[in-house]
Design goal:
By secondary structure, the chain is of the alpha+beta class. It contains two helices and four strands; from the N terminus they run ββββαα.
């Protein structure tokens, strides 16, 4: 059983990118609220010391965070990858469906 105040990880995803590793962890606090922790761990210096940076996104902010994040991803897709507009439209429609579901889940805030 968890101690009072213990944060429980309920989902995790990791991305390795050269000397950096990104972690996306969904955790649950002692009040049973979900939140997202995005961490970056990178090796620095000659002794490969690790630096870690973290941001937390709380459940009531996840819809706005997701919307803004997708705008950035869309920008990259349009301007860096030169993805065809039809494919980008399909991706956008899929993400809008996810945002609609998030709005439904987060209306109680």
């Amino acid at each position: 059983m968890n101690e009072v105040g213990e944060r429980r990880e309920i989902f995790s995803s990791r991305v390795r990118a050269g000397s950096r590793t990104y972690y996306f962890d969904v955790k649950k606090n002692s009040k049973n609220d979900n939140y997202l922790v995005i961490s970056e761990s990178k090796k620095v210096g000659d002794d490969n010391e690790k630096q870690r940076h973290r941001i937390m996104v709380f459940e009531e902010d996840i819809e706005k965070f997701s919307d803004s994040f997708f705008q950035v991803v869309s920008f990259f897709l349009k301007n860096s990858v030169n993805i065809p507009s039809e494919e980008l439209d399909s991706i956008t429609n899929s993400f809008n469906k996810v945002l609609t579901q998030l709005r439904t889940l987060t209306r109680h805030w």
